[in-house]
Amino acid sequence: MTKDIATPTRTKEILKKYGFTFKKSLGQNFLIDTNILNRIVDHAELTDETGAIEIGPGIGALTEQLAKRAKKVLAFEIDQRLLPILADTLSPYPHAKVIHQDVLKANLKETLAQEFEGIEDLMVVANLPYYVTTPILMKLLEEQIPVRGIVVMLQKEVADRIAAKPGTKDYGSLSIAIQYYTEAETVMVVPKTVFNPQPNVDSAVIRLIRRNEPAVKVENEAFFFKVVRASFGQRRKTILNNLVNNLPNGKANKAAIEQALSEASVDPKRRGETLSIEEFGKLSDELGKSFA
Ligand code: SAM
């Protein structure tokens, strides 16, 4: 029986056979630990009815483990050099399909509707390329693709910011952007030694479970995110100063900002990092009366 792809010896053999050299610029750090991979896949709670979406299959280490449990796997890979390798390593898994595309340029809604016709339960599971972690996550969430959730490996520092709670140093506009759409939790911290080559930063796995409704109902979603970003402009400044300095026409409308803070029961001396998503929602609706 062939060994799993994600073992140090098999990975080495595959890389050697194809003369493959890693491209740092594409975030190529491949997993070489089947145990870690299985734990990642466990967190996704796949069944034989699930469609799995992977971003960046590499030489197929995670794809193989997904294929063993899911009904179908669809993987987006940007690096053309990996296509013949994947055709070889994934040949025992005909229900795993690789699309040669930059996931950031993909029409996900259309592709998923075509590829997963008749499959209701969809999960994204990936070991993300770290240079584009946030744009990928924001694309998946903002385009509202019909997935149950997302289980991904990323930089620990980014995982900490995504799952942070109000009042902590890591809490910021990224925490709110992700928690607006999902319930976020760090489920594993992963040592560098399970990758080839080893990345420079620590890694973690987060699980994002999509909410049926956003965490807070707001009048104007785009303006809500503008208020959140403005509030975290300079972390050491009060929310009042940040809104005055960072909202368009904020300086000319200081009185209206003070009024909105008062209506939303937010002390103008507080810092953005202490406000819950619900408080930001209320504040954005009040500010929207004079700004949006
Ligand atoms: N899944 C494999 C594993 O765990 O061993 C490889 C993960 S490696 C961290 C990231 C992969 O994403 C690489 O194969 C890289 O070529 C691919 N990649 C980088 N940028 C991409 C993009 N914009 N769209 C699709 N794939 C991308």
TrEMBL record:
Binding site for S-adenosyl-L-methionine: N29, L31, G56, E77, D102, N127
Keywords: Cytoplasm, Methyltransferase, RNA-binding, rRNA processing, S-adenosyl-L-methionine, Transferase
PROSITE patterns registered for this protein in UniProt: RRNA_A_DIMETH, SAM_RNA_A_N6_MT
UniProt xrefs under InterPro entries: KsgA/Erm (IPR001737), rRNA_Ade_diMease-like_C (IPR023165), rRNA_Ade_Mease_Trfase_CS (IPR020596), rRNA_Ade_methylase_Trfase_N (IPR020598), rRNA_adenine_dimethylase (IPR011530), SAM-dependent_MTases_sf (IPR029063)
Keyword Heme: no
Localisation: Cytoplasm
EC number: 2.1.1.182
Enzyme class: transferase
GO MF entries: 16S rRNA (adenine(1518)-N(6)/adenine(1519)-N(6))-dimethyltransferase activity
Domain called Ribosomal RNA adenine methylase transferase N-terminal: residue spans: 36-212
Catalytic activity as recorded in UniProt: adenosine(1518)/adenosine(1519) in 16S rRNA + 4 S-adenosyl-L-methionine = N(6)-dimethyladenosine(1518)/N(6)-dimethyladenosine(1519) in 16S rRNA + 4 S-adenosyl-L-homocysteine + 4 H(+)
Main location: cytoplasm
Classification via CDD domains: AdoMet_MTases (cd02440)
Family, per entry: Belongs to the class I-like SAM-binding methyltransferase superfamily. rRNA adenine N(6)-methyltransferase family. RsmA subfamily.
Job description of the protein: Specifically dimethylates two adjacent adenosines (A1518 and A1519) in the loop of a conserved hairpin near the 3'-end of 16S rRNA in the 30S particle. May play a critical role in biogenesis of 30S subunits.
NCBIfam families, per database record: ksgA
Identification of the protein by name: Ribosomal RNA small subunit methyltransferase A
Organism expressing this protein natively: Priestia flexa
